[in-house]
Specification:
Elements lengths: L3 H9 L2 E7 L6 H10 L5 E6 L13 H7 L3 H12 L10 H13 L5 E6 L6 H17 L3 E7 L3 H13 L5 E5 L2
Parallel strand pairs: 1-4, 1-5, 2-3, 3-4
Length: 178
């Protein structure tokens, strides 16, 4: 119930986030599944970090990006940024273009729920995209909820703290599993 409440809030009005932190085997993934099953959000996107892919940019959000890139004109723009031949000289703005194209494409799926498991293994750019999506939804008054779980690690702590800075206090929930 503690996780389902902010998810339901984010799905109804404005952005919200919930975090579960616990040691391996403490039930984080099971708790995510249970919380997500208790809310009526039409679009769920399940994302996961994997230790072997933590150095691969956008690996944790690959499924989300593939889905978004199939959605209309905004999806076409995202697909072009992701899959077309890279120019000889890459622009420093390229990651920002990908983040914004994904943000615009996600609007067609809202209200939506992003479920991120094993945050400690997610690559930096995937976490940046999740943060950007939640922050943008909050700023625009759109409906998006994020539920994330991870082991007690720097990446998980920093990700949770970054969202606590951009969302209202009543839109963020944290649970520490013993």
């Amino acid at each position: 119930a503690a996780l389902a409440a902010p998810v339901a809030r984010g799905a109804r009005h404005g952005a919200a986030a919930a975090f579960v932190v616990g040691d391996p085997g403490s039930g984080k993934s099971r708790l995510l599944d249970e919380a997500c099953s208790r809310v009526d959000v039409p679009n769920h996107f399940r994302l996961a970090g994997y230790e072997a892919e933590r150095q691969v940019p956008l690996a944790a959000v690959g499924h989300l990006l593939r889905t978004l890139s199939k959605q209309g004109a905004e999806g076409d723009r995202l697909a072009a940024l992701l899959y077309e031949t890279v120019h000889e000289r890459e622009s420093a703005l390229e990651p920002m273009r990908v983040l914004e194209a994904a943000n615009r494409a996600l609007r067609a799926f809202e209200p939506a729920l992003l479920v991120v498991d094993d945050v400690q293994w997610a690559d930096q750019l995937s976490l940046a995209l999740c943060h950007y999506l939640v922050r943008s939804a909050h700023e625009d008054g759109r409906s998006l909820a994020l539920v994330a779980a991870g082991r007690p690690a720097r990446a998980a702590t920093e990700f949770a703290a970054s969202l606590e800075h951009v969302l209202p206090a009543d839109a963020v929930t944290g649970i520490q599993l013993e």
